[in-house]
Amino acid sequence: MQYASIPAKVETSSSGDIFITVKNISDDYRADYDMRVLDSKGKVVEVSEQNGGITYFSYLKKNRLYYYQIRETRTSAYPWEEDFTGEWTKKVPFVIAQYQLSQVGTGRKVCIKMPKISGVKSYKVYMSYKKDRAWKKLKTVKAGKSIVISKFKGKALARNKKYYYKIVPSKGVNATIGVIRFSKKK
Q: How many domains does the structure of the chain reveal?
């Protein structure tokens, strides 16, 4: 069976490592998946074999645009069957970006600087009180520029309250989620 795409979820850890989770969509219990990561020029950087689940890529460089591809493989269980290797799916872009987060002055303001990455023109910045839902778009920021956050939903950022931010590059399927929290004055 040949698939146009195989569902996968891309997540970036705070250290910049990439986790790609593949959803097994084959009817055959013997189905495995090969995954490869390509750089922006199409050169293969890493290859991994897996049998569903999560693939971890840790040697990718920061502030770069990459692509991943997946293909299904099957090893025959019987001598009269042939092994199967499917075609690679279309390239799916993802970004490993290192954002610079800093406090502005002594107040409750935060500056987030977006990196310049070849192929990425802008970043959408969202904010929420919850880590996994209710995201409100703050602004679209050009690559190499910064955003200063001092208010959320019309109110100044409060001490001892967690604010989650999500940054989505214009090219790529992954987002980076972080937390902002100002501690109490002593």
A: 2
